[in-house]
Design brief:
alpha+beta; 7 strands; about 10% strand
Length: about 300
């Protein structure tokens, strides 16, 4: 296989929503070819994606090796991966000193994810001395620098952090607007990119938002009803002229969800796994309508 052939194959694979199990061997072969070609400008990027692949397959040793090489070749996103390895204990133990080192290196290279992880470490006092004012300053700077970048996948996380800062300051109107903006941006990513990892953040943000303002039952949608689903309730909605019902039930002091012919052990499990016509209920968010609470 030539370098040009590998690049063409990778372009096709990256155009898919996800890399299938059948495609993985070819995916790794192409990336490895590029990663070992030091003269190719895509070398560092290929090393990064190999690191990401091996990290997803719980080979932290190989992920670290490829990400270190990627960082040396100037691919700044590799610092985020290295920071995460140590921050989230993916080597079997947490190492906040190394996490802070790599996040700081990435932040110096203007990596936005690394910047807000550095901020979080100051907020929580992990390795560094706790400093809420520095955390606040870093988040405000990130927001001001990125608020107009509608294509930024990291922007909703930045906005949510700023919303929490404003809520803590009792700047309620501003906090409400920021929470609403963050939730809408998270939903856009879930719907357009089918990125279900944001579900838990949407649910958290919904809860926090409705602690600041009264819930409006005239504006029900598939996501904001999560706030109501913390208690037993029945809700109906429509999709393509068909009616569907969601029911939450208190079972042994925990809320379980009944939808279709299935039970879900929690509200979050429902959002991550429930389907309508074989499509995730969350990715259909903009196509669901007619929400109504059944008394």
């Amino acid at each position: 296989m030539t370098i040009d052939e590998a690049i063409k194959i990778l372009d096709g694979l990256f155009a898919k929503p996800e890399i299938s199990e059948d495609d993985e061997p070819l995916f790794v072969e192409c990336l490895t070819l590029l990663a070992n070609d030091k003269e190719n400008e895509l070398c560092g990027e290929a090393q990064y994606y190999l690191g990401d692949y091996y990290n997803g397959n719980r080979r932290a040793d190989l992920a670290i090796s490829y990400w270190e090489r990627s960082a040396e070749n100037g691919f700044e996103a590799a610092y985020a991966g290295l920071g995460d390895i140590y921050f989230f204990g993916e080597i079997g133990e947490f190492d906040y000193e190394k996490a802070f080192y790599y996040y700081s290196k990435g932040a110096d290279k203007d990596n936005r994810y690394c910047k807000y992880m550095v901020a979080d470490m100051y907020k929580d006092g992990l390795f560094v001395q706790q400093n809420y004012e520095k955390y606040k300053l870093l988040i405000e700077e990130l927001y001001n620098d990125n608020k107009d970048d509608e294509n930024s996948w990291i922007l909703p996380d930045i906005i949510l952090r700023l919303a929490r800062i404003r809520a803590k300051e009792k700047d309620i109107d501003n906090a409400i607007n920021l929470y609403s903006d963050a939730i809408n941006k998270y939903i856009n990513v879930v719907v357009k990119r089918k990125y279900l990892a944001y579900i838990s953040r949407i649910l958290e943000a919904n809860d926090e938002l409705h602690q600041l303002r009264r819930f409006d039952v005239d504006e029900l949608n598939i996501f904001n009803i999560s706030y109501l689903m913390k208690s037993p309730i029945r809700i109906i909605f429509m999709y393509e002229d068909n009616s569907y019902e969601i029911e939450t039930v208190n079972e042994n002091d925990s809320i379980v969800v009944h939808f279709g012919n299935k039970w879900y052990r929690s509200v979050e499990e429902f959002y991550k796994n429930a389907k309508v016509d074989e499509e995730s209920i969350t990715t259909l968010a903009y196509e669901l309508y007619g929400f109504e609470i059944i008394e």
